[in-house]
TrEMBL record:
GO terms for biological process: intracellular protein transport; retrograde transport, endosome to Golgi. This is Vacuolar protein sorting-associated protein 35. One of its GO terms (cellular component) is retromer, cargo-selective complex. Belongs to the VPS35 family. Gene3D superfamilies: Vacuolar protein sorting-associated protein 35, helical subcomplex Vps35-C. Keywords: Cytoplasm, Endosome, Golgi apparatus, Membrane, Protein transport, Transport. It is a peripheral membrane protein. It is found in: Cytoplasm; Endosome membrane; Golgi apparatus, trans-Golgi network membrane; Prevacuolar compartment membrane. It comes from Rubroshorea leprosula. The keyword Cytoplasm applies. The lineage of its organism: Eukaryota, Viridiplantae, Streptophyta, Embryophyta, Tracheophyta. Plays a role in vesicular protein sorting.
Length: 789
C-alpha cells in the first residue's frame, strides 16, 4: 500500500513537471502572440491529464494546475477575438489537436469565448460541446472534463435576464444542456465502481465518494437558473433527474443525488412535487439510507413551515402529512430488512414535521405514534442503544412542542411506545417527563390524567423486569426519587373530591415501589393529604350525609394506613415524624380520638423500633414538642400521653440526654395559651428531677474521670427556672432561683470541676439577662429585684 502511494507521488510529480514545462513554452508563445505554438504547447500540457495512474485525489491536484493555465489561455483567446481574429476559425483550429482529451479541453475553452462573442447562438455551441465530450468515456478523465465544461459555461447559460437569452436561446436550452451534462457525468461516476479488480471495491467506493461533488454541481447550477419555475421543475427537471437516480441502481449515487435534490431546490418546489419525489423512494436500492434522505426532506419542510405562516395553507392543500405518512409506510414495506432504528428515525422525523406544521392536529401526532407502535409490535424490548435514544427523541418531541404533559397524555399511543424501552431508558424518559412538568409548572388536576402520568413514569416508581437495586448508583437513585417527590407536591385541584381521588391514585402507584422508594415518596403524599385536611378543617361529616364525600376522618384513615407501610420498610424514625404531623393536623380539626391514635402509633414505634440512643433523643424531643402544642386532648388522655413521655425521658441512656429531656417535659405542664394546663407543682417536680439527674451525671463523671465535668446542664436548668419564674409560675420562687445560682457558682469554684469557657460564657450571659430584666423596671423589674447575682 505504501509503495502504491509512493509511486503515485512520483507520477504526480512527473505529471506536474511535464505540465509546467509545456506551460512555460505556452506562456512564451502567448507573450509573442504566436497562436500556433501556443496551441501546440497547450495541447502537450493538457496531454498530462491523459494519465490513468493517479487516484482521483491526486488527479484533482494535476487538473487544478491545468485549470489555472487554461484560464490564462482563455484570456489570450479573448484578446485575439478583440484584435479581430475569427472565433469560428479558432474553434475549427483547436479541433486539429492530435489527442482527443487536449482537443476537448481546448474546444471547451474556445467555446466559452465563442459564446461570449455571440457570433453563434449559445445553445448551438453548448449542444456541440456537450455532445463532443462523449468522446471521453474513461470515468475519471470524463468527469473532470465535463466538470470543466460546467465550470466555464455556468455564467454563459441562456437564462432569464441573462445577456445570452435571445430569440433562439431559451431557458429550456440551458436546462437541456445542464441535464445532458449531468446525465453523462452520472453514468461515468456510476461506471467507476466496475473499473479494476473486485478486491479494490472498497477503495474505489471511497474514491467515488470523493468525486461526488463534481456530479452534484450540475444540480446546483440547475437550482440557480432563474428561469426554472415550478412548472418547468415539475414537468422537466425533476422527472429527468429522478429517472437518472432510479435507473442508475447504485447505492452511493442514489443516496447522494436524492440528498442533493432536497438541498438545492426551493422548499415550495418540494412541497408541490411531493408525490413525484416520494414516489421515487421505494424504487431506490434496499441498501440506500433512505431514512436520512426523508428525514432531511421533512426537516426542510418543517423549517419552511416555521419560517413562513403563509406556507401553511399550501401544506394543507397538498395533504403533505398524508403523503409523507404513506411514503414512509411504502419505504418500510419495500425495505424489508430495514433495522428498527431506521423505522423509528423515520417516524420521529414525521412526528417533528407534524408538530411543526399541524400543531393543532393531535390526531396526526397520535397516528404517527400508532404507526410506530404497529411496526414495533411483536418485537422484544429494544436492545439497540441508538434505537432507544431515538425513541426518547420521538417521545420528547410532543413535550418540547407543547410544553405541557397534559396534551401529551391525550395521545393514546404515547404509553404504548414506552413499553418497548428497556428499564434504564424508561427511567430516562420518565425523568424527561418530570423535568418538563417542573420546567413548565404544568398543573395536572384530574385523577385520570394522574393515572395516565404515573403509568408513563412507572420506571421511576417501581422496579421493572426485576432490576436489582445493587446495580443502581445511590446518588442517581436519590435524585430520581426526589424528582418523583417534587412531582407529587405539584398535583393539585381546588375541588376536594377530585383532590382526594388524585391522592388515592398516587398512593396506589407509590405503594408498589418497594422498601427503598417509600421513604422518598410517602412523605410528599402525606403532606399533600394534610394540605387537603387543612382545606376541610372544621368540617366533620358531610351535611347531606353522603357516605362517599371526603371528610378529614376519611383522609386520616388513609394516612394511618399509608404511614404504617413505612414501619414495614423499616423506616421507624420517618414514620414517627409523619405520625406526629398527622396528630397535629387532627388536633387542628378537633378530632381527639384520631390524634390519640396517631400518638399511640408514634409511641409504639418509639418503644419497639427505635433503639439507637441518638435517634431516641431526637424522637423524644419531637414527641414532647408536638404534645405541648396539642389542645384537643381531655385530661385523661393528656395525662396518659404526658406520663409516657416523661417516663421515656427518664429512661434515656446518657444522663445529660435524660436531664435535658426531663426539663423539656416541664413545658407539658405549663402551656401559655391554655389556662387548664398550668400545673406549677408538676413543672417544679420536673425541674427538680432534672437537677437530680444533672447532679448524678456530675457524680458519675467524678467517679469515672476524677472531675465533675461541666456545669452546662445546671445553667440550662437555671434558664428553665427563669422562664417559668417570668411566666408567673408560683412554685418557682426567688429563693429557688437564688439557691440554684449559688449552687452553680459553688460548683464552678470547686477544685474538682473542669474549666469550661463555653459554660462560663453561658452563665455570664444568663446573669446579664437577669440584670437587664432588673433595669427594665415595671412588674418584671420588681420580680427580678429580689434575685442577687
Amino acid at each position: 500500500m505504501a509503495d502504491v502511494v509512493e509511486d503515485e507521488e512520483k507520477w504526480l510529480a512527473a505529471g506536474v513537471a511535464g505540465l509546467q514545462q509545456n506551460a512555460f513554452y505556452m506562456h512564451r508563445a502567448l507573450d509573442s502572440n504566436n497562436l500556433r505554438d501556443a496551441l501546440k504547447y497547450s495541447a502537450q500540457m493538457l496531454s498530462e491529464l491523459r494519465t490513468s495512474k493517479l487516484s482521483p485525489h491526486k488527479y484533482y491536484a494535476l487538473y487544478m494546475r491545468a485549470f489555472d493555465e487554461l484560464r490564462k489561455l482563455e484570456m489570450f483567446f479573448k484578446e485575439e477575438a478583440r484584435r479581430g481574429c475569427s472565433i469560428i476559425d479558432l474553434y475549427e483550429l483547436v479541433q486539429h489537436a492530435g489527442n482527443i482529451l487536449p482537443r476537448l479541453y481546448l474546444l471547451c475553452t474556445v467555446g466559452s469565448v465563442y459564446i461570449k462573442s455571440k457570433e453563434a447562438p449559445a445553445k448551438d455551441v453548448l449542444k456541440d460541446l456537450v455532445e463532443m465530450c462523449r468522446g471521453i468515456q474513461h470515468p475519471v478523465r470524463g468527469l473532470f472534463l465535463r466538470s470543466y465544461l460546467a465550470q466555464v459555461s455556468r455564467d454563459k447559460l441562456p437564462d432569464i435576464g441573462s445577456e445570452y437569452e435571445g430569440d433562439a436561446d431559451t431557458v429550456m436550452d440551458a436546462v437541456e444542456f445542464v441535464l445532458q451534462n449531468f446525465t453523462e457525468m452520472n453514468k461515468l461516476w456510476v461506471r467507476m465502481q466496475h473499473q479494476g479488480p473486485a478486491r479494490e471495491k472498497e477503495k474505489r467506493e471511497k474514491e467515488r465518494s470523493e468525486l461526488r461533488d463534481l456530479v452534484g454541481k450540475n444540480l446546483h447550477v440547475l437550482g440557480q437558473i432563474e428561469g426554472v419555475d415550478l412548472e418547468m421543475y415539475k414537468d422537466v427537471v425533476l422527472p429527468r433527474v429522478l429517472e437518472q437516480v432510479v435507473n442508475c441502481k447504485d447505492e452511493l449515487a442514489q443516496y447522494y443525488l436524492m440528498d442533493c435534490i432536497i438541498q438545492v431546490f426551493p422548499d415550495e418546489y418540494h412541497l408541490q412535487t411531493l408525490d413525484v419525489l416520494l414516489g421515487a423512494c421505494p424504487q431506490l436500492q434496499p441498501t440506500v439510507d433512505i431514512k436520512t434522505v426523508l428525514s432531511r426532506l421533512m426537516e426542510r419542510l418543517s423549517n419552511y413551515a416555521a419560517s413562513s405562516i403563509d406556507a401553511l395553507p399550501e401544506f394543507l392543500q397538498v395533504e403533505a402529512f398524508s403523503k409523507l405518512n404513506n411514503a414512509i409506510g411504502k419505504v418500510i414495506e419495500a425495505q424489508v430488512d430495514m433495522p428498527v432504528l431506521g423505522v423509528i428515525t423515520l417516524y420521529s422525523s414525521l412526528l417533528t414535521f407534524t408538530l411543526h406544521v399541524h400543531p393543532d392536529r393531535l390526531d396526526y401526532a397520535d397516528q404517527v405514534l400508532g404507526a410506530c407502535v404497529k411496526k414495533l409490535s411483536g418485537k422484544e424490548k429494544l436492545e439497540d442503544s441508538k434505537a432507544t435514544k431515538q425513541i426518547v427523541s420521538l417521545l420528547s418531541a410532543p413535550l418540547e412542542k407543547y410544553n405541557d404533559i397534559v396534551i401529551a397524555l391525550k395521545l393514546s399511543n404515547y404509553p404504548c411506545i414506552m413499553e418497548y424501552l428497556d428499564s434504564e431508558t424508561n427511567k430516562v424518559m420518565a425523568t424527561v417527563i418530570i423535568q418538563s412538568i417542573m420546567k413548565n409548572k404544568t398543573r395536572i388536576s384530574a385523577a385520570d390524567k394522574v393515572e395516565a402520568l404515573f403509568e408513563l413514569i412507572k420506571g421511576l416508581i417501581k422496579d421493572l423486569d426485576g432490576t436489582v437495586h445493587d446495580e443502581v448508583d445511590e446518588d442517581d437513585f436519590k435524585e430520581e426519587q426526589n424528582s418523583v417527590a417534587r412531582l407529587i407536591q405539584m398535583l393539585y385541584n381546588d375541588d376536594v373530591e377530585e383532590m382526594f381521588k388524585i391522592i388515592c391514585t398516587v398512593r396506589k402507584h407509590i405503594l408498589t415501589g418497594g422498601p427503598k422508594r417509600l421513604p422518598f415518596t410517602i412523605p410528599p403524599l402525606v403532606f399533600s393529604s394534610l394540605k387537603l385536611v387543612r382545606q376541610l378543617q372544621g368540617q366533620d361529616e358531610n351535611p347531606f350525609g353522603e357516605e362517599e364525600s371526603t371528610t378529614p376522618k376519611k383522609i386520616f384513615q388513609l394516612l394511618n394506613q399509608t404511614v404504617e407501610t413505612l414501619s414495614n420498610v423499616p423506616a421507624p424514625e420517618l414514620a414517627l415524624r409523619l405520625y406526629l404531623q398527622c396528630a397535629e393536623a387532627a388536633n387542628d380539626c378537633d378530632l381527639e380520638p384520631v390524634a390519640y391514635e396517631f400518638f399511640t402509633q408514634a409511641y409504639i414505634l418509639y418503644e419497639e423500633e427505635i433503639s439507637d440512643s441518638r435517634a431516641q433523643v431526637t424522637a423524644i424531643h419531637l414527641i414532647i414538642g408536638t404534645l405541648q402544642r396539642m389542645h384537643v386532648f381531655g385530661v385523661e388522655n393528656r395525662d396518659t400521653l404526658t406520663h409516657k413521655a416523661t417516663g421515656y425521658s427518664a429512661k434515656l441512656l446518657k444522663k445529660p440526654d435524660q436531664c435535658r429531656a426531663v426539663y423539656v417535659c416541664s413545658h407539658l405542664f405549663w402551656v401559655d395559651d391554655q389556662e387548664n394546663i398550668k400545673d406549677g407543682e408538676r413543672v417544679l417536680l420536673c425541674l427538680k428531677r432534672a437537677l437530680r439527674i444533672a447532679n448524678a451525671a456530675q457524680q458519675m463523671a467524678n467517679a469515672a474521670r476524677g472531675s465533675t465535668g461541666s456545669v452546662t446542664l445546671f445553667v440550662e436548668i437555671l434558664n428553665k427556672y427563669l422562664y417559668f419564674f417570668e411566666k408567673g409560675n408560683p412554685q418557682i420562687t426567688v429563693a429557688a432561683v437564688q439557691s440554684l445560682i449559688e449552687l452553680i457558682t459553688t460548683e464552678m469554684q470547686s477544685d474538682s470541676s473542669t474549666p469550661d469557657p463555653a459554660a462560663d460564657a453561658f452563665l455570664a450571659s444568663t446573669l446579664r439577662y437577669i440584670e437587664f430584666q432588673k433595669q427594665k423596671g415595671g412588674a418584671i423589674g420588681e420580680k427580678y429585684d429580689s434575685i442577687k447575682v
